[in-house]
Amino acid sequence: MTVPFAIPDNWSWGTIGDVVCRVEAGKSFTCLPRRARDDEWGIIKVSAMTWREFREHENKAVPPDREIDPRFEIHPGDILVSRANTEQYVGAPVLVGACRPRLLLSDKSLRLVPASGIDKAWLLNVLASPFVRRQISTRASGQQDSMRNISQQTLLAIDLPIPPVAEQRRIVDALEEYLVRVQSSQQGVRRAMMRLEILRGSLRQAVVCGGKLPVQHMSDGWRWGKLRDVVDGVEAGKSFACHPRPARADEWGVIKVSAMTWGEFRPQENKAVPVDYPVNPAHRLEAGDLLVSRANTEAYVGAPVIVRNLQADLLLSDKSLRLRIRAGIDKEWLLQVLSSPFVRRQISDKATGTKDSMRNISQQALLDVDIAIPQPMQQSILASQLSGRLEGLERLAAELAAVLKQGDLLRSALLHAAFDGRLVSQDPNDEPASELLERIHVERAAAPPKQKARRRTHQELTAPRTTVTGDNYQQEALPL
User: Fold this and answer.
1) CB burial class (10 A; 0-12, 13-18, 19+) of residue 18?
2) For residues 261-280, b (16+ Cβ closer than 10 Å) or e, as one string?
3) Alpha carbon distance 122, 164 (integer Å)
4) What is the DSSP letter of 412?
5) Confidence grade of residue 1 (pLDDT, cut at 50, 70, 90)
6) Which terminal residue of the chain has fewer beta carbons within 10 Å of its beta carbon, N or C?
7) What angle do CA 278, 284, 288 make, to 5 degrees?
8) How many whole angstroms separate alpha carbon 284 and alpha carbon 313?
9) If pLDDT is split at 50, 70 and 90, which confidence band does 120 have?
């Protein structure tokens, strides 16, 4: 292989396949659209492995009549890798800490079992290092704007700089000391950002609801009404098969839900319309449109945005709604009303679907939302006052986000230094990594061939209402 960079003399170059004894993958099937209860089996979703920590609640309940293979149950201490995810998170490793029982690997998750002599914490950290992450991103299949995939064979062929066992442990000790400090600092920043979000909601609540919610305490000139009292109607787009990439300058695009999710309209979040599809001009977006996300997660269903930076020919989708605002109603005021905690709670209550899946708000349910309506002149004044206060909060939020990013850069720098031999000193008395790899190779060659799992019987299962079979599950192991 071509050596990517210099490493200490007692280190060796190898692959992930050299330092794991096997890889295990589960199997997916149709599950219930909700989280598993404590007495049910569940299959993890890719979101369980996305955020640097294992999230056991990110799962779907297995129907009670499905066959369960307990070999693929997840246990504390497992190292899991996301086989399919977005470009940023495909191949992302997590260490399972505390974990509920009866939770299974899915076909989009891989469990890596370290070889004898490989420190588990070192393996977890090297998988998260910038050098390995770049290789995974480069070798993963699929378009960069859609779900990416990394096969087991490709993952096992990823190059690694491998230190002696003793140095693996010294690296882990040093990383734990430094990364705990980074994590603690970032947690403080995140708490500050959460407090900012609460303050943002309080400002909206006070301004758009006259400062008081009960009907009998309305401010002078205000009245209670419904959203339908300030709009002339709602328009929805249409869904159809699109290309899994953004539209080019000469193409039509259909906006995705992510275009309306983050408090500002993101025109780049779209899918290209096939050239032979008959486009309905009535669904074309215009600058100044007020949109609402009809279908999204619980946190973002009904999220409003104003189209301010339209740079292409884009269309409404079936998951987006356009409000036709009545004459005399201030658009900026209405945006803040729809963003207020009072209205967001109503939308969440009226939305259909389970809280662990995509939620939906119908046009009629949206129009029935209660709002406090001031006089038109007051609407503009309130919107202007609120805008000025929110701008100050946005600047502070941007500064906190920059600090958070600096923490991520520091983490990457520490990992980079750890895995090219610069974080801890080398000990010439350490057993060279080459001898460790040779010992793993000998043990692997001497191991008996892996036998096919026998069919299990109903009596062997401890879980109620299940039968067990290995025939419908796939498990791949390294060739011996």
Assistant:
1) buried
2) beeebbbebbbbbeeeeeee
3) 11
4) H
5) low
6) N
7) 175
8) 7
9) very high
User: Hey, which bits of 337-455 come out as E strands?
Assistant: 359-360, 370-373
Tokens of 438: 């040779």
Q: Are strands 109-114 and 79-82 parallel, antiparallel or unpaired?
A: antiparallel
**Tens digit of each residue's pLDDT (9 = 90 or more) over 43-73:** 999 889 887 889 999 999 999 988 889 899 9
Q: Which amino acid is at 77?
A: G
Quick: pLDDT tens for 396-455.
Answer: 999 999 999 999 999 999 999 999 899 999 999 999 999 999 999 998 888 787 665 554
For the chain, state the CA radius of gyration: 27
The residues, any chain, with a CB within 8 Å of residue 424's CB and separated by 6 or more, are 167, 170, 171, 174, 418
Neighbours of 190 (CB within 10 A): 12
d(CA 247, CA 269): 9
CA distance 195 to 214: 25
CA atoms within 13 A on the CB side of 391: 6
Nearest CA-CA partner of 472 in 81, 105, 82, 26: 26
Structure tokens at 176: 């734990």
In this structure, is the dihedral angle defined by the CA atoms of residues 120, 124, 129 and 131, taken in order, positive or negative? positive
Residue with tokens 């297995």: 62
